[in-house]
Description:
The complex is a heterodimer of chains A (418) and B (295). Helix content of chain A is 49%, strand content 14%. Chain A is built from 18 helices and 13 strands. Chain A has helices spanning 2-19, 37-51, 64-76, 89-97, 105-108, 112-115, 147-152, 162-174, 188-212, 221-235, 248-256, 269-276, 320-329, 332-340, 358-369, 377-380, 383-398, 403-416; strands at 24-30, 55-61, 83-86, 126-127, 130-131, 133-138, 142-146, 178-180, 260-265, 287-290, 305-307, 309-314, 373-375. In chain A, strands 2-1-3-12-6 form a five-stranded mixed β-sheet. A four-stranded mixed β-sheet of chain A has the order 8-9-7-10. Chain A has a two-stranded antiparallel ribbon with strand order 4-5. The radius of gyration of chain A is 24 Å and the shape is globular. With 295 residues, chain B is mainly α. Chain B is 73% helix and 1% strand. Chain B is built from 13 helices and two strands; from the N terminus they run αββαααααααααααα. Chain B has helices spanning 2-38, 56-62, 65-96, 104-116, 119-130, 136-144, 160-185, 189-197, 202-213, 215-230, 234-238, 251-261, 265-289, and strands at 41-42, 51-52. In chain B, strand 1 (41-42) and strand 2 (51-52) form a beta hairpin. The chains are: A alpha/beta (418), B mainly alpha (295). The interface between A and B is medium-sized, with 30 and 30 residues.
Amino acid sequence: MRRIACLIGLLVLLPGLALFAAPVKFSFWHIGVNDPDKSFYQSVVDGYLKLHPNVTIDMTILENEAFKAKTSTLMQSGDPPDVFQSWGGGLMSTYAAAGLLRDISKEVLGTAWGGSMAPGVLGVYQYNGKQYGMPYDMGAVSFWYNKDLLAKVGYTTFPATWPDLLKLVSKLKAAGITPIAVGAGDKWPAHFWWSYLAIRLGGKPIFQNVLSGKGKGFNDPAFVKAGQLLLDLANLKPFQDGFLAATWPDQAGFIGDGKAAFHLMGQWSPSAESAYSVSKKGILDKEGMAPFPSVPGGVGKATDAFGGGNGFAIGKNAPDEAVDFLKFLTNKENNSRYAATGNIIPTVKGADVSLKDPNARMVKGLVDKAGYYQLYLDQFFPPAVGGVVNDSVQAILAGTQTPAQAAAAIQTAYDENK
Amino acid sequence: MKTNARTAALPTLLLLIGPAFILFTMLVVVPVVQAAVYSLYRWNGMGPLTAFRGLQNFVTLFTNATFQKAVWHNVLIVIVSLGIEIPLALGLALIIGRSDFPLAVFFRTFFFLPYVLSEVITGVLWQFIYHPQYGLVKAIVSFISPSAPSPVLLGNPHITLWVIMIVIVWKYFGFHMTILIAGLQDIPEELREAARIDGASNGQVNRYITIPLLRTTLQISVFFSIIGSFQVFDVVWAMGKGDPVNAAETMVTYLYKFGIQRLNIGLGSAVAVTIFAVCLVFSVFYQRTLMREER
């Protein structure tokens, strides 16, 4: 009798239990230490928890450099967070190759989630054809210039060709204006110059050759000529004093204070210029944006773009709920809300309607129109190769390596780390 | 009888040495052995050790121009430490170490202050001082000659190392000065007084009485200085990561940059083993030869 009562009790309880899914906990690491990023992520987490009361999200917020240092230790201990900031490319591939990431191809490729993303952006988070993460921000590097300073030397638009850019530099110099700010001490801001020149000169084929091992790799004349053109520019002494030791915040502050006419930077540039300027306001409506000019004789198209963005990767031990959370984070509604803050260039199709800033809309245009999209070289390759790309560009600017030596050094590093 | 005493002391010995021995093994011996093992592999720090390459990492390291440059920079730092830092510390110690020197305590504290600052804070502070647009040096230059160009210090690879040396000397001379003052206080004043009564000048007293009696202390100071010079990292890293173009690279910044940051733990471990070996050999040699004579 008692047994039957128990059985009936169980039968009654079981369907009820199913309604209350088992409790799940996962970790979520992001680098949005300041608003609006910080409150955006908080709102996403709150929204998700409301829909899924059985889930607990253990959130860790770290500043960019601290995050990099901490994750590299965690990765070496074999214990990655479940959902964490990732720039895709070479470092993510290194993690994936070591079996530290969860393959989410099943959830992404060929599904509505994958289909909701703008074309081309998924590839940045793939390794060997498998998906390991998802982007929420994908922009392009472009010129950001001070309209007032350019107007002083008679330019109302930014030069559309490289020779014209050199002319602009000479005119600015003659007028006593520092033409270009660059934080070459941090190296990566300088590597933008060399990379973009190589893309304009050699286009997609030279990068495909590097990867496939065909041709001369980085010793291709296009890479060497990119270094030569950069050297020609450097010989005009266009940069602020002490640029070889300057940091990215130095560079942003220089532009934000109106002390230099232009620089080459990604989509986050205007907000950083404000943050690092003395007034904390930057140059406001004097800010102009222009794509990288075409280079005469180059094979690359003027629409080829160079850039990168942000996303999240999934750790190897992540539960399904973590993947579902990332899906929620990168849905159209949330991506649009994030884009409305002006801090990202959204990756979800149609999410860009909330992009208000005209310059940000132009960056989005560069990404959308890109026939060939190349991720930052220092992120695209594993750290041992990306680091040498950065070193070599600095060496060209310092005059310690010739353009040919610099290209050869990168190829050597590439061969050693294949 | 003697044996008995020893046997009886054994539990006490184990009790006293045991904890330190276990900690030392876990925190020093084990990591050193681990690094030695890693240095024989090609390894990015993730997953199992599979790619054994023998001593290839060491060959790569010793033939690498940047590492050779880094070693040379460490040697230069040793030379500057011994040639400028220690003499400066000694000179100041002889002046303000005298109890009759006015404001002795004030000056001792004042010169010791840089040592109290953390290395990273020191680096950041001097980065501001050297800043070509907003720095103190720039302000001084502009004050003297308003039309002078911005002084480029850290951004000029020809002098980066030397301007960082200034910071290293500034930071550590106070430490050595304090050690030497402590040593001076151990020298009985009677000896100096006796020499003075015999008609020795201040210089002669220092030359023939004080400095010879300070020898042991000086040897300790020199020892710390050399070992410290091999291990310089934080100050250099905070002032531009050993760059531009490796102009201020040291062995440890090389280890961190090329080993840890670029995920080449095998090579990084080879650097660590090399530094460890250099310091160990030097320490043993120094203690055995120079410092043993005293006993």
